[in-house]
Amino acid sequence: MALNNFLFAQCVCYFLAFLFSFVAVVPLSENGHDFRGRCLLFTEGMWLSDNLTVRERARFTVQEWGPPAACRFSLLASLLSLLLAAAHAWRTLFFLCKGHEGSFFYAFLNLLVSAFVVFLVFIASTIVSVGFTMWCDTITEKGTVPHSCEELQAIDLKLNVNNSAFYDQFAITQVHFPTPDWPLKALVGCGWPGDSCHIWEPSGSAGHRVGPEVLC
Known about the structure:
Its main location: membrane. By secondary structure, the protein is of the alpha+beta class. It has helices spanning 2-34, 68-98, 104-139, 149-152, 166-176, 181-188, and strands at residues 39-48, 59-66, 196-197, 200-203, 206-209, 214-215.
């Protein structure tokens, strides 16, 4: 029963990782399509007046679009997390129903894979957070424009792109990256479902193994 409960918890964890990864992949893909392959992150620009004799901000001009690699990396990190979460969820569910005795090697392998995904998600979350903040600071001129970053998505910036949903897309994207599913799995999981691991408890100055191998 304890084994089944643990496998079920793993399955739920992987399902949540899959769900949040999907939530990130969709808006990132839509934003890339709306901006015609241009990367919004880290974009530099300024507001210019249509009439140079009038001190009025009327048109936003992009000086340099953000590096495409920034958006591609974030999308690829989400896709990788999505695929691995789906594979782990299916494997966990399979072994929950059938049962399996694995080895320490698979547990160690899973730990490395999970840690790698944690690293990618951390880098991607930093890129998205910092890059989108720089974009919002640019189009609002750090708050001097009488519109918030969210309000400006309802205004045609005349950049030959569809900017009608950029704020919502990246707000949804950032829901995925802070989630603890992969870090939690890397720290908690004994690895792949059915992999064997050992539980240790302190006993005086040394530890001893409790019983035989415990299946994860």
